[in-house]
Amino acid sequence: MSRTIPRVVITGIGAVTPIGNTAADYWQGMMEGRSGAGPISRFDATHFDTKFACELKNYDPTLHISRKEVQRMDLFTQYAMSCAVMAVEDSGLNIEAVNGERAGVIFGSGIGGMWTNHVQQQNLFERGGVPDRISPFFVPMLISDIAAGYIAIRFGLKGPNYGTVSACATSSHSIADAFMIMQRGMADVMLAGGSEASVCPMGIGGFNAMKALSTRNDDPLTASRPFDLDRDGFVMGEGGGVIVMETLEHAMNRGATILAEIVGIGLTDDAFHITQPAPGGEGAVRSMKLAIQDAGLTPSDIDYVNAHGTSTHFNDKSESAAIRAVFGDHADNLLVSSTKSMTGHLLGAAGAIEGIASVLAIHKGIAPPTINQITPDPECTLNYVANKPQEKQIRAAISNTFGFGGHNATLCFKAFAE
């Protein structure tokens, strides 16, 4: 017996980012072309090669979480909870009226409770290796799946629930998995996204050891410069994002406002190198092609690409080549931007906040800019929406995220039409 595959729409968004602690403020920050970079305040970075990052500003977890809960949560989980609460509020869902057994959470973090690990190890070392100072909450604060569990408990969501971990593709995989679960008919409502809080000594120190971070310490505001000839590495960011996904039937039955529709996903791996992309962005090419095909669209239907655009030499060159390979002559008609130029790279949370940027670009008819476009790179020849947003009716958009390990994930969204 054939089964009708449900359409899946987006009805709510929530975000905490280095350029705004709500989705509305995040969007405003992008429209202003504002950089979230500045000197690191969380620890003394004097002896680190990189002394700046894109940290949250004036974030108050107690707006959404009790003080007791805050003390038992790593920062990444606090960010997750704030995003989830705001996304549910934005969706207008009456949680008490939702069938909890038909609602779930897929929420990821690339690294999880890195700050908690740092603090608890310090406690252990300061006690000469005697473990009596290790918190009984250490493990549940550390593990990356705990955010999904907390969100489910908060809202009574008893359906599919787990965390994804795939480096920088993590939260795109969360959204993709939620989409597939809903298409399979296993849920009517899903919350999906990711969060990250890795601006800590081991986070900055580890990426410095890899020579992956920008060291433009004299000018942090212009350090994240995707597709620019003088880029010298990515800028670490922190925060998170959640989207509320509903079947079209569920959303229509309650009269929800629909922001956009998610219509396709592409999931691949380079199988080439643990950190470098495959030559020519081969895995990214397949990821984008699969997402567009899964959506039932053609490359010419896509108007906007939210690029992975990390501001690293290899990524930006290979992603630009991959986009040209996928879109051919239509590549010159695309608006392509890297919102990491403003937020920095949120690692496992990148796909969530960049998916939100893509949804809002469709909903509002404006492509966010790539700021810090100063010196064109002759190997990066697309329209990167340089420095200022650009108005355009966006029929459909794709959002790319690529992670260490060769993980590639592309999400395809389009404007909603009944």
Describe the structure.
Helices cover 32% and strands 18% of the residues. It is of the alpha/beta class and 418 residues long. The strands form 3 sheets. The chain has a 10-stranded mixed β-sheet, with helices on both faces. Strands 2-3 form a two-stranded antiparallel sheet. Helix 11 links the parallel strand 9 and strand 10 (335-337). Helix 3 (75-91) packs parallel to helix 6, helix 7 crosses helix 13 (350-364) and helix 10 (282-294) packs across helix 11. The longest helix has 17 residues, at 75-91. The chain is globular and about 60 Å long. The mean pLDDT is 97.
Give a quick rundown of the structure.
The protein has 418 residues and is α/β, with parallel strands linked by helices. Helices cover 32% and strands 18% of the residues.
**Major beta sheet, strand line-up:** 5-4-6-7-1-8-14-13-9-10
The N- and C-terminal alpha carbons lie at a distance of: 26 Å
Q: What is the number of beta strands?
A: 14
User: What's the SSE pattern?
Assistant: EHEEHHEHHHEHEHEHEHEHEHHEEEE
Mean pLDDT, nearest integer?
97
Poorly predicted residue ranges: none
Structural class determined from secondary elements? alpha/beta
Task: Kindly state the percentage of residues in helix.
Answer: 25-40%
| DSSP helical segment count | 13
* Rg, nearest Å: 20 Å
The geometry reads as globular
Report the sheet-strand fraction.
15-25%
- Report the sheet with the most strands, covering strand number, pairing sense and barrel closure: 10 strands, mixed
